[in-house]
Specification:
The chain has about 375 residues and is of the alpha/beta class. It has three domains: about 100 residues, 3-Layer(aba) Sandwich (Rossmann fold); about 70 residues, Helix Hairpins; about 150 residues, Heat Shock Protein 90, CATH 3.30.565.10. Helix content is about 50%, strand content about 20%. α1 links the parallel β1 and β2. α5 runs antiparallel to α6 and α8 runs antiparallel to α9. It is elongated and about 115 Å long. The relative contact order is 0.07. The structure holds adenosine-5'-triphosphate and magnesium ion. Adenosine-5'-triphosphate binds next to α8 and α9.
């Protein structure tokens, strides 16, 4: 719970009609407010240098400085101050002007206590809300900065660890290569096979480290957003991963796709991953059917990629978007489990969302929501 000032509210009353100003000070004082009165706006201005007030109640028509100008001048010194303007009957237009200039409310003179008290208490509540809001915003800003700093540190850590792991690994690979080359022929077949397995494992580890480095880079590169022709991008990706389909029956169903707003090279990675997965996990199917769908929704554009492949257990759907999470064995379907983590990261950096649905053994569907582009 936020704790703010719980002291009695301090009210500054300014009215050039001295008797009225004094009466108001007295009456509000009796109702639990701490009041300070001035019959001149200049004197009131000087007073705020010394003391702090919560609420200004000022007459509109005063000789030196009218109530609106006074409120403006006071708020430039203390933006938390709220103001209520008093005005003679018949000048509602001016009262409206006063509110436009930042007064929270106005009171028509002559007024009764039963009218003024609720107006003051409402103005003070609004002030409290403003303060609470400002406090919350400051805390959110601080937390966000802390999180960003922690995130940066983590990224830097994972990228330097990956770098440091890579050097000794390259050594291992190098020496295994030498050993196999120099004495491979003379080794008993079982020993040779062991060395070859060690090479395979070390290469796999090298790939994992590369993936980790690329993943940590995705989090750091700046977003270069612009209009992206999704249809062209998808056609390009299918062209690129097409060779993987050699000898397979693959049916691509791609409708006309709209232009979206985003970073082309990052969005390309998204579709390389999603379409690549669809192609990989439909390998046992003939024909494999990979279908893209898009539809505008309230928040932006939804794009879904559906395939008739092996699917996955829906209970683990959210887990798939974490780094190195896989639901299929590497002997069956190769991969490191980094693709969807990249998809998640890229789409979130675009302000969007990702999700996954499946019926095990029948189909899988991956969806991304790209937020509406800014108005150009
Ligand atoms: N279209 C799909 N059908 C069924 N399962 C999928 C599909 N796409 C992803 N998955 C499951 O989600 C896991 C994570 O996918 P992800 O793309 O992150 O990794 P990967 O494809 O295994 O490896 P990488 O993308 O690093 O080459 C996969 O291993 C698989 O278990
Ligand atoms: Mg993948």
């Amino acid at each position: 719970m936020l704790k703010l000032d719980t002291m009695a509210a301090r009210i500054l009353i300014v009215d050039d009609e001295v008797a009225q100003m004094e009466a108001l000070c007295r009456t509000l004082g009796e109702h639990g407010y701490v009041t300070t009165g001035f019959s001149s706006a200049r004197a009131a201005l000087a007073a705020v240098e010394e003391a702090k007030f919560d609420l200004l109640v000022a007459d509109l028509m005063m000789p030196e400085l009218d109530g609106i100008a006074l409120l403006r001048a006071l708020r430039s010194k203390d933006p938390d101050l709220v103001g209520v303007i008093m005005t003679g009957e018949g000048s509602i237009d001016t009262a409206v002007e006063a509110m436009k200039a930042g007064a929270l409310d106005y009171i028509l003179k002559p007024f009764r206590l039963s009218v003024i008290l609720p107006v003051l208490s409402r103005a003070l509540s609004v002030r409290r809300l403003h303060q609470e809001n400002a406090l919350l915003e400051r805390r959110i800003r601080e937390r966000t900065e802390e999180l960003e700093a922690a995130n940066k540190e983590l990224e830097a850590f994972s990228s330097s660890v990956s770098h440091d792991l890579r050097a000794p690994l390259r050594h291992i690979l190098g020496f295994l290569g030498f050993a196999l080359e120099a004495s491979g022929e003379r080794l008993p077949p079982a020993a040779r096979q062991d060395l070859e397995s060690a090479v395979t494992a070390a290469r796999k580890m090298d790939q994992l480290i590369s993936d980790l480095l690329a993943y940590s880079k995705t989090g750091r590169v700046g977003l270069k957003a612009g209009p992206v022709e999704l249809g062209d991008l998808v056609a390009e990706v299918i062209q690129e991963i097409g060779p993987d389909t050699a000898g397979r029956a693959v049916e691509w169903q791609v409708p006309p796709l709209p232009t979206v707003w985003g970073d082309r090279s990052l969005l390309r990675q998204v579709f390389v991953n999603l379409l690549g997965n669809a192609l990989k996990f439909t390998r046992p199917r003939s024909p494999a059917v990979i279908e893209l769908k898009s539809r505008p929704v309230a928040e932006g554009l939804e794009v879904r990629v559906r395939d008739n492949g092996v699917g996955f257990d829906q209970r683990f759907a959210d887990r798939l978007f974490g780094a190195f999470q896989r639901l299929h064995s590497a002997d069956q379907f190769e991969g490191n489990g980094i693709g969807l983590a990249n998809v998640h990261r890229i789409i979130h950096r675009h302000g969007g969302r990702v999700w996954a649905d499946s019926k095990l053994g029948e189909w899988a569907e991956f969806g991304v929501l790209l937020p509406r582009p800014p108005d150009l």
